[in-house]
């Protein structure tokens, strides 16, 4: 379906932005402020910090690792159905977590179910936003993605108050009920492009002759919905109704046309060969990407930063309580401070990276260095105000996630963006999943967070050093960015949608 240029960069597109912002707000509010729930889970289930930390790490990492699957769902079924289904997953996972008998069940209900639902929301909202915007796409995506940070800021305080009023179980039930509003957000996501599921049906129908497609239908085959009159043979069907009505009969006709099992087997072998060729081409493209030293260095940097910098969002409240700096979570939790700082970081770094003389890779390395130093200072802090300042610095550094797509595009170009960004997200998700349990195990071993944060800070600083060293022109043999051709964006969102 062609997209009229008049439909882009305005009009209903801003309703899409508002709906997508609210979708990310509702889906990511609780997972991004899971640090408020973590002390309650420790008190309720009386398990080790390392085991309990798996809940927070899974809910943040599973969606990233499964991003290729989430993007494929959006490409095939469209943003609206996927958002509705994700609303059921997120709300159901949160409500199930209210009745979790142990931490292992929480790892499934909150970590995996809610995590996959959030991944689907993220893919759907970015895809539909890209479809409606071309020249203002950066601004639109910036507004949409800040929904996660704003959600974390508000949900951290809201969950704290709900726990005090209704307890942990009541809090999760109420948050789960709010997540059902994702279905309302999906109602605004009117598609501009027909999803791949319908396109495949249309392509199958077009292989038939015109006589087969428009042959006289039986009255029983064209039952209309309730409230409509029965269709007559002379009535002209729309494209979507035609696809849905004739699909089953069309498949039956194609099956009857087969001469025998020999031809069916031949077709199966042909399909298998085509799939093998496509798979081989995909593997070859992935191997070419991983042969780029700058790309490998960036993946290592993302992994080391995710492993070291994510745990503070989960443990920082428990750090304050275990050190006796505060008896309970404050009115504005440390998680909220980190979330709003991450929101500022996303917007600020996004503005800085558009300045031509600023190297995006070195800018990312600088945020890693700042975050690593802040992590090393956390064990030395003896005041709650100091923890608030350090939480803001680490949160601002976490805003460098807004640079990943830009840097990946600058390294490999737009043609290989789909595969390359999937690789980067896998390394990031893998680091997020491993980080909190490692920090929790350090505490279970030493009964102190000091060694854990020294490890995290050192790991992040090592990643910043390796990223800077491996991308230097003298070590790499080429400039990490400026030798790349300018990326020319168009109104086609195929590449951007698959990156969501």
From TrEMBL:
Give TM segment ranges: 12-31, 51-70, 82-100, 106-126, 138-157, 163-184, 294-316, 331-349, 361-381, 387-408, 420-439, 451-472
- Where primarily located? membrane
Membrane topology value: Multi-pass membrane protein
Q: Which GO terms describe its molecular function?
A: monocarboxylic acid transmembrane transporter activity
Q: Name one GO cellular component term.
A: membrane
Provide the Major facilitator superfamily (MFS) profile domain boundaries. 16-475
What InterPro entries does the record point to?
MFS, MFS_dom, MFS_trans_sf, Proton-linked_MCT
Key words of the record? Membrane, Transmembrane, Transmembrane helix
Using the record for this protein, list the coiled-coil segments as residue ranges, or answer none. none
Q: Does the keyword Transmembrane apply?
A: yes
The family database entries (Pfam families) matched by this protein are listed as: MFS_1
Q: Where in the cell is it found?
A: Membrane
Protein known as? Solute carrier family 16 member 9a
């Amino acid at each position: 379906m062609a997209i009229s240029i008049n439909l882009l960069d305005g009009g209903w597109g801003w309703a899409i932005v508002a709906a997508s912002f609210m979708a990310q707000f509702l889906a990511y509010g609780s997972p991004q402020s899971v640090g408020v729930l973590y002390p309650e889970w420790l008190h309720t289930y009386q398990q080790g910090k390392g085991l309990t930390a798996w809940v927070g790490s899974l809910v943040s990492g599973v969606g990233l690792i499964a991003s290729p699957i989430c993007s494929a769902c959006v490409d095939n079924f469209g943003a609206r159905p996927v958002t509705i289904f994700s609303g059921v997953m997120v709300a159901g996972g949160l409500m199930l977590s209210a009745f979790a008998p142990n931490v292992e069940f929480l790892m499934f209900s909150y970590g995996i179910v809610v995590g996959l639902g959030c991944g689907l929301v993220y893919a759907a909202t970015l895809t539909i936003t890209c479809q409606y915007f071309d020249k203002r796409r950066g601004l639109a995506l910036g507004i949409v993605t800040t929904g996660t940070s704003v959600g974390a800021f508000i949900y951290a305080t809201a969950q704290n108050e709900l726990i005090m009023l209704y307890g942990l179980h009541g809090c999760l039930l109420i948050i789960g009920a709010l997540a059902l509003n994702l279905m309302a957000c999906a109602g605004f996501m009117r598609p501009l492009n027909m999803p791949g599921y319908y396109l495949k049906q249309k392509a199958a129908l077009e292989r038939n002759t015109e006589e087969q497609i428009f042959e006289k239908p039986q009255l029983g085959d064209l039952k209309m919905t309730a409230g409509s009159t029965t269709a007559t043979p002379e009535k002209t069907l729309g494209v979507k109704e035609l696809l849905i009505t004739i699909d089953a009969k069309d498949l039956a006709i194609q099956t009857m046309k087969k001469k025998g099992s020999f031809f069916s087997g031949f077709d199966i072998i042909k399909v298998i060969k085509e799939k093998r060729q496509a798979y081989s081409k995909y593997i070859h493209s992935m191997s070419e990407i991983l042969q780029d030293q700058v790309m490998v260095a960036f993946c290592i940097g993302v992994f080391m930063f995710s492993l070291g910098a994510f745990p503070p969002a989960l443990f920082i409240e428990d750090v304050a309580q275990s050190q006796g700096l505060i008896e309970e979570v404050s009115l504005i939790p440390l998680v909220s401070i980190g979330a709003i700082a991450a929101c500022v970081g996303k917007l600020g770094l996004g503005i800085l990276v558009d300045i031509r003389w600023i190297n995006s890779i070195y800018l990312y390395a600088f945020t890693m260095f700042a975050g690593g130093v802040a992590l090393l200072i956390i064990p030395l802090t003896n005041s709650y105000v100091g923890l608030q300042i350090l939480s803001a610095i680490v949160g601002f550094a976490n805003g460098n996630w807004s640079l990943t797509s830009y840097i990946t595009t600058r390294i490999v170009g737009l043609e290989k963006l789909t595969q390359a960004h999937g690789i980067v997200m896998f390394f990031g998700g893998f680091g997020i999943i491993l980080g909190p349990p490692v920090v929790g195990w350090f505490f279970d071993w030493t009964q102190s967070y000091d060694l854990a944060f020294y490890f995290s800070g050192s790991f992040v600083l090592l990643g910043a050093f390796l990223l800077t060293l491996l991308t230097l022109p003298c070590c790499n043999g080429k400039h990490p960015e400026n030798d790349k051709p300018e990326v020319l964006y168009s109104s086609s969102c195929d590449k951007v949608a698959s990156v969501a």
